[in-house]
Specification:
rod-shaped; 62% helix; 2 domains; 2 helices; CCDC170-like; two-stranded antiparallel ribbon; mainly alpha
Length: 147
């Protein structure tokens, strides 16, 4: 009987250790499951962000292609750098602004951002109208822009 009592005590100790270990492993498993769930949510969010960025990139590439075609740039060539497209747009807009202010009789001087000088309209009085260039109507002939 003494022996059985010792065995029972030992079994009780082993059972307590196993239960403690099981509780620890169970808690660790729950922590891993929670971490896995958080990682899956983050992965889903990152996938969604990547899809949005891919769509945005595709839209930007389409926009660049349309702008390049509108500027008569070679769309079949390798993609042009942004600065080249911007320079073409600036040139086009600069010419348009000169044309608009020359031929649409705007009665205010226009500060050309490229030349940093006011350009006068044809109907504005100048002390020396002979110094005006017929292309840009600028008081500074060195600033002429061919149309």
């Amino acid at each position: 009987m003494q022996e059985q009592k010792k065995r029972m005590e030992r079994l009780a100790e082993v059972k307590a250790k196993v239960e403690k270990k099981l509780g620890s492993v169970s808690s660790e498993l729950q922590n891993h499951e929670k971490k896995t769930q958080e990682d899956e949510q983050q992965l889903g969010s990152l996938r969604q962000s990547l899809a949005q960025l891919s769509d945005r990139e595709r839209e930007l590439l389409d926009f660049r292609m349309v702008v390049s075609q509108m500027l008569s740039l070679d769309a079949t060539a390798p993609p042009l750098p942004n600065h080249q497209i911007i320079k073409s747009l600036e040139t086009l807009l600069h010419t348009h602004h000169h044309y608009h202010h020359l031929y649409h009789r705007v009665n205010t001087p226009w500060q050309c951002p490229t030349h940093r000088r006011p350009h006068l309209c044809p109907n504005q009085d100048l002390h020396d109208s002979s110094s005006l260039d017929s292309t840009s109507r600028s008081a500074h002939p060195e600033d002429t822009v061919p149309l």
